[in-house]
Every structure is written in structure tokens, then in C-alpha cells.
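Example S7 (C-alpha cells).
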């Protein structure tokens, strides 16, 4: 067998294996991280990025055909380097702060250069179906039985106590992440070969059980892709998923008092704080928006440098910008005590990160980085439109929407899942 053919086969096998293992490995890493203080999430990211880098080198001849994405990625890389040099803090801040941005670029380029056979995608979708089904079972048990179900599934965090709030975590410790994976699953429903309707309903239950307002809204926004689907069966499946989300939300809100109270409490606090500039930092996104906007206005072009303000790296390294722009740390005694005195309530655990992905990119990389990442996502969406790869188009659109009111694109472990699947599916459609 010629060396080039052998290399191509090995690369294809590796890409297929990564596609099959990616979602269950992501869920497993989140599950393990709850109980054992080992850097399993970082290990997941590093492993996937190492495989992606290997694939880029092996498939470089195919990658050259994606000139537009390469040019945008090169410009982004240059802007990240320049921003880091202009606002150099330390090697640790630069390395860890730039990791989400560089990682997103590497994953997407590797996926675009790794087209699969349709049979590979079908097998990988089957694994996703099983994984999401297990998460749905765990989520329903948590809503029905409360803390005992969380204990059995190793999701019983002492704080936040989700069993008191009527929000399921499935197997990923955080209801927001559960909702994100549910929307991801809905995006894949057109690719499911058998029992599409059942999978659509299971995915809808996962979204609803998380009680994530953002996930529910984005799952309904996915219905806008309905006219683009070729088959009537795929269209019907997507509509069933949307109707399933609405029905599941109504059932959960009517039958789980904690879920109903928590949803209204979070919604009311967000509205009241948005209209009251002197309110306590209870809805962290509102406070982050104020701080991030102020920081961006002082460094609008190239930002404050990767890892300097909006990321978890900035919090860990004690960035001086946090105090300057009043970025709240919701784990601080001051904020927690103020809330307890105010109405005896607790807020969700968070860190001094923006939790608003596009704003984080703007504050750390400026308008140049913001436009660059939007152009990169837009370029892949344009290819998906041309290739009629509706799944890829939906996945990129969903990731962009999640990046508005959650870390989204800059949450590397989650972005890995969305970007890899989006890139692989559009590349497979192009072959």
C-alpha cells in the first residue's frame, strides 16, 4: 500500500474515532470532575486539541482548499499575538488565556480537513443518541426524586443545591450545560436514521429539564431551519422536537413547584436588576455586561489581551482589571452575604468571568478579534449553505447564539463539540 494512501487511511480512522468518542468523552469528563479533584476537563481539551493538531498536519493538502478560512484564521492568530504582546501580563496568562481562542481555530480547521464516510457519521450519531438518552433518564430521575437521584448520579454538589431548585443536571453537573447538549442533540435529529421522533422527544426533555431559558429559546430558534431540510421526514422531526420542548417545559413547570419558583425568581431578578443600577449582583450577566462594556470602551481595537479580563484565567491570576471595572465575583463573601441579608436567597456559583462570550472576545481581543471570529463562523455557515449541510448550519448558528448570553465559543470544552461536528458534517457533505 502506498505511503500516502496508508497515511490517509490512518487520518480518516482517527477522525472517525474522534467523532464517535467526542460527545460521550465530554460528558464523562464533566461527570468525573464533580467528585474527583483531578484536571479531567483540561485533559479532555488537551487530548482533543492534540488529535486535531495531528489531523491538520496529516490533512494539510486538503486544508489548503479552504483558503478563505485559512486567511481568516491567520488574521485572527496575528491579532491574538499582537494583543498579547501589547498587554503582556505573564506567560501563564497568555498561554491559558489564549487557549480558548486558539483551540477553537485548531478544532474547526482540523474538522474541515477531515471528511468522513456517511457510515462513520451514522455510527457517531448512534453514540450521541445513546448518550443523550442516558442524560435524559438521569435528568427525569433528578426532577422526580430530588437529592437521592443526584447522589446516585454523583451530581450532588453541596452548592449550588440543584435539587432545591428544580433544575436537573443530567450527568454534566450544570443545568446550563445540560440544556446546551440538548439543543446540540436537536440539531442532529435530521441525521438520525432510525427512531428520529423518539430521539427528538428525548432531546426536548433534556432541554426542558435544565430549565435553561437560553437553551429553550435557542431550541425553538432552530425551527427556523425547517424550510432548508430536504425530506419531509426530517422536517417533521424538527417540528416534533420544537413542540416537545414546549410541552416538556409546561409539564415540568406545572408538576415541579421548585422548578416553577426558581424560573420566576431568576427571571424577575434579571428584569429588576437590569432596570435598577443600584441592585445587588444577583443576575451575573447584567453586572458582567456593565463591567465588560466599560472595559471594552477603553481598549476597543485590540482589547486588553487574552486572559486579562473576561476569562477564568483572569480570575485565577487576579487580574488588576477586575477591580478597576468592578467585575463582580459571585463567589465572594461580600456578594453572598448581601444576597442573604436582602432576601435570604443564594445565587448560582460563578466566577469573575463575563459569561457573555462575544463580549469576552471584545474585551480581550477587541473589535479585530470579534469581527475575526464572527467572520470565521460566518464563512463556515456560508459553506454549509452552499453544500446544503443543514446540520452544520444549525450547529454554527446555535453556537453563535449561545455565545451571546453564555461563554459559548470561548467555553473550549463545549465549543470543541459544536465546532468539530459542524466542521466534519460540512466537509462530509462536500465530498
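Recovered sequence:
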Amino acid at each position: 500500500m502506498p505511503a500516502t494512501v496508508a497515511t490517509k487511511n490512518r487520518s480518516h480512522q482517527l477522525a472517525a474515532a474522534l467523532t464517535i468518542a467526542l460527545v460521550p468523552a465530554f460528558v464523562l469528563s464533566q461527570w468525573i470532575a464533580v467528585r474527583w479533584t483531578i484536571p479531567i476537563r483540561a485533559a479532555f481539551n488537551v487530548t482533543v486539541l492534540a488529535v486535531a493538531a495531528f489531523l491538520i498536519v496529516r490533512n494539510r493538502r486538503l486544508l489548503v482548499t479552504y483558503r478563505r478560512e485559512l486567511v481568516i484564521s491567520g488574521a485572527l492568530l496575528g491579532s491574538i499575538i499582537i494583543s498579547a504582546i501589547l498587554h503582556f501580563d505573564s506567560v501563564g496568562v497568555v498561554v491559558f488565556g489564549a487557549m480558548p481562542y486558539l483551540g477553537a481555530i485548531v478544532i474547526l480547521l482540523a474538522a474541515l480537513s477531515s471528511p468522513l464516510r456517511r457510515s462513520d457519521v451514522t455510527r457517531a450519531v448512534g453514540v450521541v443518541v445513546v448518550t443523550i438518552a442516558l442524560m435524559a433518564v438521569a435528568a427525569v430521575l433528578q426532577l422526580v426524586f430530588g437529592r437521592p437521584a443526584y447522589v446516585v448520579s454523583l451530581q450532588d454538589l453541596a452548592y449550588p443545591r440543584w435539587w432545591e431548585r428544580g433544575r436537573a443536571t443530567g450527568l454534566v453537573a450544570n443545568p446550563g450545560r445540560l440544556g446546551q447538549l440538548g439543543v446540540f442533540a436537536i440539531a442532529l435529529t435530521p441525521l438520525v436514521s432510525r427512531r428520529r421522533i423518539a430521539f427528538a422527544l428525548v432531546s426536548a426533555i433534556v432541554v426542558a429539564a435544565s430549565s435553561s431559558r437560553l437553551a429553550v429559546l435557542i431550541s425553538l430558534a432552530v425551527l427556523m431551519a425547517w424550510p432548508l431540510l430536504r425530506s419531509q421526514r426530517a422536517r417533521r422531526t424538527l417540528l416534533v422536537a420544537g413542540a416537545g420542548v414546549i410541552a416538556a417545559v409546561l409539564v415540568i413547570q406545572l408538576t415541579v413547584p421548585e422548578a416553577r419558583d426558581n424560573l420566576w425568581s431568576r427571571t424577575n431578578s434579571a428584569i429588576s436588576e437590569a432596570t435598577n443600577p443600584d441592585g445587588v449582583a444577583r443576575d451575573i450577566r447584567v453586572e458582567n455586561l456593565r463591567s465588560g462594556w466599560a472595559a471594552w470602551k477603553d481598549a476597543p481595537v485590540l482589547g486588553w489581551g487574552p486572559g486579562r479580563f473576561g476569562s477564568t484565567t483572569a480570575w485565577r491570576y487576579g487580574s488588576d482589571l477586575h477591580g478597576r471595572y468592578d467585575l463582580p465575583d459571585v463567589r465572594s463573601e461580600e456578594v453572598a452575604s448581601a444576597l442573604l441579608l436582602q432576601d435570604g436567597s443564594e445565587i448560582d456559583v460563578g466566577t469573575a468571568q463575563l459569561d457573555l462570550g462575544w463580549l469576552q472576545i471584545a474585551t480581550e481581543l477587541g473589535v479585530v478579534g470579534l469581527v475575526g471570529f464572527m467572520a470565521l463562523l460566518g464563512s463556515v455557515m456560508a459553506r454549509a449553505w452552499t453544500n446544503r449541510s443543514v446540520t452544520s448550519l444549525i450547529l454554527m448558528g446555535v453556537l453563535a447564539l449561545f455565545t451571546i448570553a453564555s461563554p459559548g465559543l470561548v467555553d473550549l470544552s463545549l465549543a470543541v463539540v459544536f465546532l468539530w461536528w459542524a466542521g466534519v458534517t460540512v466537509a462530509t457533505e462536500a465530498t
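Notes on this example. Residues 3-259+355-430 form one domain.
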